[in-house]
Design a protein that fits this description.
Length: about 500
């Protein structure tokens, strides 16, 4: 049975002697968003969904394929079912397909055409986090990213590829390579095959305290290959069906400033060594006796922080994203049966958001001292999370009012309840964030949040910062504040998020 409302177009190609022969017939079904083709034997027919399309490239000069009618020539770049890069000639494809995928030039975008460093080394870097998630980054680089760069004629000498060997690799490269180049004012592109932890590593090296007058923010291209990919996921529309792991954004995207969160801890706070997680070390004590980390996604305590910590074992990590669900079930339904989940004891203080007329870009903590504190009435909690992104997973909408890159901070909190009730609220996050409509949930925009822990057992005094776990000392505290100073840019497809286009240099 033919698909409904398809458009079709034959494709031809030149053969020996200049004879033009019909080779392939294309059909595009806009309703199912699938391009299919039939080929002369022995080649088998094929199809590709819109979500697997990386780009349609307009060929020029010697790269053009003759179609016999003088029409334009294109190449389809896409991901195959095995997750590898593929290309296919397209001569006179269906117009409706080109409407869905506006062609781009053959030449790479500006962020893939960078001048080398003054020291003679490339300013494009690929960070392959072999320890993130289920370890898929190495294979993705070999079968998808590197072949795409070869097709674009990006010479291997124009970039450096690094495979992480430890949890500190990204931070070490940041200090030794990326930060000095940024301080020299050089444009850099960092292609990150990792999760949220890799971004956290970078922004804690490239943080506001180290920027100089000539500092040029590196451009990040995020490819979600970690366990936690909240930032990359939130930079795409909620209905996005991307199967290219953001290779489409690498070609279509434009850089936009990435807002930061500033998290601060009491002097005795320490970083928990997670299993193979790319987590930054807590900086030394500040003059005021505190410790500071920067984040781009969230700070959490209580249930969320505990399950992230508990699930970071080789056994849990083998389950990918499911590790969080498995750990949550143990926390919510502890042994023996009918035991109530732990009620986390802490004093919470929120600070209302600054008015739009008061910028905190200089952020010398004035946003804290100028805002009246609002002590939270309850001293026991189940869930405490402050975030500036809408989704923690593709369909897990934790903060439905959040918009990518707007820099607004939102609190999600609810109190102690039975495991079944907690699971009911969690399930509503998968319905577009309907949990925030529940009377048990506090959901509000804030400028900052302070948590004073009143737990004796260390297990319940943990804080999650973009996947890194900080253990707060007994009687200690944690804070998170909006910090609109951006030290890195991130590639975003402006068409998918209705963002203004900026021009890279």
């Amino acid at each position: 049975m033919s698909p409904p409302n398809p458009s079709s177009s034959p494709t031809s190609s030149t053969v020996d002697g200049g004879v033009v022969a019909t080779a392939t017939s294309f059909r595009y079904d806009a309703e199912s968003a699938v391009l299919s083709w039939c080929c002369p034997p022995p080649e088998a027919p094929g199809a590709v969904s819109d979500g697997a399309v990386i780009a349609v490239v307009r060929e020029e000069g010697d790269d053009m394929v003759t179609d016999g009618d003088g029409g334009e020539s294109y190449t389809l770049l896409y991901m195959d079912a095995a997750g590898g890069f593929q290309s296919r000639a397209l001569s006179a494809p269906p117009p409706s397909f080109l409407d869905a995928h506006p062609p781009i030039p053959r030449s790479p975008p500006a962020h893939l055409r960078l001048r080398p460093s003054r020291l003679g080394r490339p300013n494009m870097h690929i960070l392959i986090s072999a320890l993130s998630g289920t370890g898929a980054a190495v294979g993705f680089y070999a079968t998808a990213l590197r072949p795409l760069l070869e097709y674009l004629r990006v010479a291997p000498s124009s970039y450096c590829a690094y495979t992480t060997t430890s949890a500190s690799t990204v931070a070490e490269l940041g200090r030794s390579v990326f930060l000095p180049a940024a301080q020299r004012g050089e444009h850099q592109t960092l292609i990150l095959l990792a999760g949220d932890g890799g971004v956290c590593d970078l922004v804690n090296v490239l943080n506001p305290a180290v920027t100089t007058a000539g500092y040029t923010p590196p451009t990040l291209s995020l490819h979600p290959l970690g366990t936690g990919n909240a930032l990359a996921t939130s930079l795409a529309p909620p209905t996005d069906a991307d199967q290219t792991f953001a290779l489409s954004t690498l070609l279509h995207g434009h850089p936009h400033p990435l807002p930061l969160l500033r998290t601060t801890f009491s002097p005795g706070a320490s970083l928990q060594a997670l299993h193979h997680s790319p987590t930054p070390l807590l900086p030394p004590l500040s003059p005021d006796g505190t410790r500071t980390m920067y984040a781009t996604v969230l700070l959490s305590a209580a249930l969320h922080a505990t399950l992230v910590s508990d699930s970071d074992t080789p056994t849990y990590r083998a389950h990918g994203l499911s590790r969080f669900r498995l750990a949550a079930e143990k926390l919510l339904f502890p042994d023996p049966p009918d035991t109530i989940p732990h009620a986390y004891k802490a004093r919470i203080t929120t600070y209302p958001p600054l008015s739009p007329h008061h910028s905190n870009n200089n952020n010398n903590n004035n946003n804290k001292t100028n805002q009246p504190p609002h002590p939270f009435p309850s001293l026991t909690h189940s869930y405490i999370l402050a975030t500036q992104v809408p989704r923690l997973e593709k369909t897990f909408t934790i903060s439905p009012a959040s918009r990518p890159l707007d820099g607004r901070l939102w609190l999600v909190r609810f109190g102690p309840m039975a495991g079944e009730e907690t699971m009911r609220l969690v399930q509503r996050t998968y319905a577009g964030g309907k949990h925030v409509d529940d009377s048990a949930v506090t959901y509000e925009e804030i400028e900052g949040l302070r948590i004073d822990f009143e737990e004796e057992e260390e297990r319940w005094r943990k804080v999650c910062v973009d996947g890194a776990i900080v253990v707060v000392e007994e009687g200690g505290w944690a804070e998170v504040w909006r910090d609109q100073r951006s030290t890195v840019d991130v590639l975003v497809n402006p068409q998918s998020l209705s963002l203004p286009t900026t021009t890279a240099t």
